[in-house]
Amino acid sequence: MMPSAKPPKHLKMRAPHVPVPEPARDLGPPKIEIRSLNFYYGELQSLRNINMSLADHSISAFIGPSGCGKSTLLRVLNRMYGLYPNQRAEGEVLIGGRDILGSAVDVAELRYRVGMVFQKPTPFPMSVFDNVAFGLRLGGGIRGAELKSRVESALRDAAIWDEVKDKLHADGRSLSGGQQQRVCIARAIAVKPEVLLLDEPTAALDPISTLRVEETLQALREKYCIVVVTHNLQQAARVSNVTGFMFMGELVEIGPSSQIFTSPKDRRTDDYITGRFG
Fold first, then answer.
1. Which CATH number do you get for residue 138?
2. Inter-residue contact 118 to 203 (CB < 8 Å)
3. pLDDT tens digits for 6-49?
4. pTM over 0.85
5. Is 7 among the domain residues?
6. What is the number of domains present in the chain?
7. What is the C-alpha separation between 135 and 112, in angstroms, rounded?
8. How crowded is residue 214: how many other Cβ atoms within 10 Å of its Cβ?
9. 254 φ/ψ angles, rounded to the nearest 5 degrees
10. Which pLDDT tens digit goes with each residue over 119-171?
């Protein structure tokens, strides 16, 4: 049970006092529409009746305590849960107007459309160039000068080109943690996905690398629908247009980040962002 007593004023941690991006009402039409989504690990229900729309060319952040369903939501959006037995999703998840939960969906093609970056940098044991070119080669049809151009473009968009342009043939694992994560972002966007998912993308990084990744996401917002899971409330406030608060498998509240962090509508959201629990 959550405590009801208010903490002393000197302990109360109201929303981070940082500027936030433009509010959701100024964004475009939805890229992702989720309707009555429920998710199960065997008999255990992890997501309960999730309904929301996420705009294209925006950053949506999801916050909440550990085990609330944030990462599970990302796993639904590219059907990564399909790699494991006894996991299932019910409801509708439309990306670009197409329901990705349908039985006829080509899951491999879906994962080209919906890229993902994980908490810990995961460069493959190959060169920087080959890391970024991996998905392009796997998809086939891109080689030679076009391949080099696509790799360079992705590295530039991930704000890492100037740091690795003379190290393209070096092992990707030889880079710093922050550089590795931006190479992983470049690898995800090289195939030009519609949606980019990031699960705690800076949790393992130092503050300077974290800032670089956040700046990269702000630039990428112009091209993609970006969905970020983070435990860092300041980060959610800094980078996102929209923030959703999840608790015990439910989407408690979602709205413009400026509103969520300054005047949330639900008491549970207020309790979380002011440090009463979590």
1. 3.40.50.300
2. no
3. 433 333 334 333 344 444 445 668 999 999 999 999 999 999 99
4. yes
5. no
6. 1
7. 8
8. 17
9. -145, 140
10. 999 999 999 999 999 999 988 778 899 999 999 999 999 999 999 999 999 99
